Amino acid sequence: MPELPEVEVIRAGLEPAVTGATVASVVVYDERSLRRHPGPSEDFIDRLTGRRMLAPERRGKFMWIPLDGGAEVLVLHLGMSGQVLLRDRDTDDLRTRIRLELAHPAHGPLRLNFVDQRIFGSMAIDTLVPTSDQPLQLVPASVAHIARDPLDERFDDATFLARLSRKNTTIKRALLDQTLISGVGNIYADESLWAAEIHYDQPTATLGRTRANALLAEVRTVLTKALAEGGTSFDAQYLNVNGQSGYFAHSLNAYGQQGEPCPRCGRPIVREQFMNRGSHFCPRCQRVR
DNA sequence: TAACCATCCTGTTAGC
DNA sequence: TGCTAACAGGATGGTT
Hints:
Blueprint: H1 4-18, E1 22-28, H2 41-48, E2 57-59, E3 62-66, E4 72-77, E5 82-87, E6 96-104, E7 108-116, E8 122-130, E9 138-140, H3 157-166, H4 171-175, H5 186-196, H6 209-228, E10 270-274, E11 277-281
Antiparallel strand pairs: 1-6, 2-3, 3-4, 4-8, 5-7, 6-7, 8-9, 10-11
The protein binds a DNA duplex through loops.
């Protein structure tokens, strides 16, 4: 499941390959991958073909590639199973939904395959607008509601903690709320909560400033470590732009570890249904209090 | 206005 | 062996 570390690994991998490249042609194999595009596939192809790409940017799990000569950008979201694979001109990938043929002045011809098994991801052309948070940043209009991520040096801890304490919800729901803090998904929410010894159903109102601060620190630690290890791969669902797996799955303490002993106290990790997904936690270390 | 939840989607796997 | 149902979860729009 691509979360912040996985998306950042892909963004960084794309940067040297696409910056300065021109889009020679576009093929849309599955229109459903354009769900977030405001027009038909012909419009997507017309607006992208012939454009020169600039350095990719990211906010949370969304990334975008600015297009030369205007305020338009190519927005990418990987959803559950999206992959961006850089290939030579002859390489095909199973379940490629959209293909871009690129021409790079230094690297020559390059193929960008947008592969997506479950089609929760998407590509779209969008325009940049200023954000409401400070300092001002230009982001695609469809991304304007997404908060900064905790690895962004402009992330405002005080604002986050204040908003968190005012919410009438529970902590895992809050961590997954991309308008409050972005980039965290189910895996890293469970890992951060395990590290901070907080139960997923702890009400945000009773968490307290000290524990909230500690949780934010653990979120940063977990994301930073996962990023350093190239992201989390369980199977071929997440690969970097070169088709390689990340290694963070070897470092997981809670997510997917149901039945395994908690690395801290030895009690078996439990998995419960929560928000239409799984929540993994240690019933001894992580209690509502 | 905020919180919650069904929905989208398909390859894999477990169960019969 | 082959069929069916359950499962995985990010974002969103509709409902409460």
